[in-house]
Amino acid sequence: MTRTPLDEVSCSIARTVNVLSDAWSWLIVRDTYLGVNRFDDYVADLGITRRVLSRRLSELVEAQILKKQLYASGPDRFDYLLTEKGAELVPLLAVLAQWGDRWEPSPGGPPIIFEHGECGPIQAVVACSCCAEALSAENVAATAGPGGTAGPGTALIGRLLAAQRSQKEVFPPEHGS
Question: Residue limits of the HTH hxlR-type domain (predicted)?
């Protein structure tokens, strides 16, 4: 099955999904974070075919989420390591695990527990950088950004955000609001 490329869609979510295209990509990032770094170990842990794994690893290296580090020559063998860009996905893994533990629980309880330093097990919270209030669908609003346009993948939301941007230009926020 051919995937529709989303790398040119005017949406940060679409471009992120384009890079982390399927469950295997997320599981490879998870495994790499947890210390699985070699091709045969990914195969053994995930039960993924060698062909699919090779493709996903190449995509993750190309996207600079993973980097290859040579550990043996003739034939060349590599460890796969998280880059800085890849490491920024780790908090998302904690949020995904927490969501899964709540809505798609394992019968025996959480299969992985994320801990923070001396604090111990965490309750992952996505919070406002200003006031630290936990974010939710009820208290967050999406507004037009400067790069939003109507086009493939954003035909409707691009128009909605553009109308919102025009509305702000007609009725600018009052000073101090």
Answer: 11-108
Tokens of 125: 């919270």
Per-position DSSP letters for 37-73, written without gaps between them: -BHHHHHHHH---HHHHHHHHHHHHHTTSEEEEEEET
Residue 171 pLDDT exceeds 80: no
Name the nearest CA neighbour of 122 among 95, 89, 104: 95
What three-state secondary structure class fits 106? coil
Q: What is the pLDDT of residue 175?
A: 46
Beta-ladder partners of 29: none
Q: Which residue has the tokens 């790069």?
A: 147
Cα separation, 75 vs 172, whole angstroms: 63
Question: Which residues have CB under 8 Å from 107's CB, separation 6+?
Answer: none
Per-residue CA distances from 156 to 18, 122, 148 (Å): 20, 38, 11
Q: Which two tokens stand for residue 30?
A: 């998870």
CA distances from 4 to 8, 14, 21 (A): 11, 11, 10
Tokens at 68, concatenated: 């290859």
As a whole number of angstroms, the distance between CA 111 and CA 101 comes to 8
pTM (two decimals): 0.84
**Angstrom distance (rounded) from CA 37 to CA 70:** 11
pLDDT at 144: 72
3 state SS of 148: coil
